[in-house]
Amino acid sequence: MNPDGPGRPDVAGAAGRPSLDRLGALDIEVAVRAAIAATVPLGILVAAGRPEWAAYAAFGAMTALFGRNEPYRLRLRTVTVAAVLLLASIGAGALLAVTAASDAVVGVVLGVLIVVGVLVVNVARLAPPTVLFFVFALLVCASAPTPSDELAPRLGVALASAGFAWLLSLSGSVLRRMAGPRGARLLRELEREAPVRRAAATDRAVWANAIEQVVAALAAGAVAVAFGLGHPYWAVVSVVAVIPPAGAARTLSRAWHRVLGTAGGVLVAAAVLWPDPPAWLLVVLIGLAQFGAEVLVGRHYGSALLCITPLALMVVHLSAPVDVGTLVVDRLVETALGCAIAMLAVLIGRAAAARGRTGILA
Q1: Where would I find the Integral membrane bound transporter domain in this sequence (predicted)?
Q2: Range of the domain at 307
Q3: Is residue 257 part of a domain?
Q4: Inside any domain, residue 15
Q5: What pLDDT, on the 0 to 100 scale, is given for residue 359?
Q6: 182: in domain
Q7: Do the beta carbons of residue 217 and residue 135 sit within 8 Å?
Q8: What is the pLDDT of residues 116-168, one digit of tens each?
Q9: Which residues have CB under 8 Å from 265's CB, separation 6+?
Q10: DSSP letters along 214-282, please?
Q11: Nearest CA to 127 among 26, 267, 211, 52?
C-alpha cells in the first residue's frame, strides 16, 4: 500500500551482466521486511485467540513501509516519525470508538489529522509522501467496536507491532555490515537524501493540498454515510490515495489505476475469502499479499492493487468477519465514489493552476 515510486536502477556490472539491483534487489529487501512485519504480530494474535485485534497489529506494522531506500541515519528519522504518526492515528481512532463518537466528531478529527499529517509529511520529507496510512488507521480503528477495558491491550498490540517494524526497518544496517564489501555489492546502494524542509510549514502549496484533501475526504465520507454504505472509510481512503501531494503533477491516471486495480483485486479477494479459510492461512496470505504489493507498487500502481485490495480485505475480515459479498461490493462501490470525488478535486485544482493560482486556496 505504498505509493512510493521505483528506484533508479544501477548500471550493469563490469562483465556486462545485469546486477541484482536491476532485478529489484531493494524491492525484494523492502518486501521481505514488510511481509515479516505484518505476519509475525498477526500470527501471534491468531495463536493467542485474538484475531479481532488484527487491525491494530497491521497498522503498527505499516511503519516498515517508510524509508525504503534511505541511508540508515535518515531512515531512523523517517520510520520514527512515521511510527509516532501511526500510533497517534490508531490511538485517536480507538478513543473515538470507545466513546462512540458521532460522525461529526470523527470528521473533525479526520480533518485535523489530514492537515497535521500533510504538514509533517512535507516538513519531515517522509517517503512515501502520503497521509494514506494514517487516515486508514484512524478510520478503521474508529469504526471497530471497542470495549473500554480493551483499549489498553489493543493500543499495546499496536505499539509492539510498530516497535517490531521499526527494528526491522533498521535491521538492514546490521545485514550490510555483516555482508562486508563483497556481499554489500549484492545489495542496492541507499541513495535517497531528504533533509528536513521547515519552510514547508508555511508553503502555500502545502496548505492548499492539505485543505484540498480535507474537503474532498469529508465530502466522500459524507456521501458514503448518506447512502448507508457499509465501510465509508474506503471512500475517504481512496480520496487521499488519489489526490497528488503538493508539487506533484495533477493527473487522473492514478484514479483510473485505483478503480481498475481495485476491481481486479476484489475478484482476487472474493476467490480467497469465499471458501472461508482458517485464520492461520489468512495470515500467510496477508504476508504474501504484502510482499507482492511492495514489489509491484513502484512499477505499476494498478497492478499493485491486485495485492493491496485483497490485503486490506483480508485484514478487515480477519478482524471482524462479515458477509464476503457485502464486503467486496462495499469496497468496489466506495472506491469508485472516492476516486470520482478525488478526480473532481484534481480537475478543480488543475483549472485553478491554469489561471495562475495554487490549489484551491487562491
Answers
A1: 220-344
A2: 23-354
A3: yes
A4: no
A5: 43
A6: yes
A7: yes
A8: 999 999 999 998 899 999 999 999 999 999 999 999 999 999 999 999 999 99
A9: 305, 306, 307, 308, 309, 310, 313
A10: HHHHHHHHHHHHHTT-S-THHHHHHHHHHSPPTTS---SHHHHHHHHHHHHHHHHHHHHHTT---HHHH
A11: 26
How far, rounded to the nearest angstrom, does the alpha carbon of residue 237 sit from its chain's CA centroid?
9
Residue with the three cell numbers 448518506? 226
Q: What is the pLDDT of residue 220?
A: 96
Blockwise average pLDDT, block size 10, the chain, 362 residues: 36 34 63 94 96 96 89 89 97 97 96 97 91 96 94 97 95 67 55 78 92 96 92 93 83 82 91 93 95 87 90 92 89 92 88 61 43
Residue 72 belongs to a domain: yes
Nearest residue to 127 via CA among 253, 249, 5? 5
d(CA 120, CA 198): 10
Spatial separation of the C-alpha atoms in residues 54 and 41, rounded to whole Å = 8
Give the integer Cα–Cα distance in Å for 178 and 201.
Answer: 40
> Alpha helices of the chain — where are they, by DSSP H?
25-47, 54-61, 72-98, 103-124, 132-143, 151-184, 204-226, 233-242, 253-273, 279-296, 301-319, 324-354
Rounded to whole angstroms, the Cα distance separating 87 from 195 reads: 24
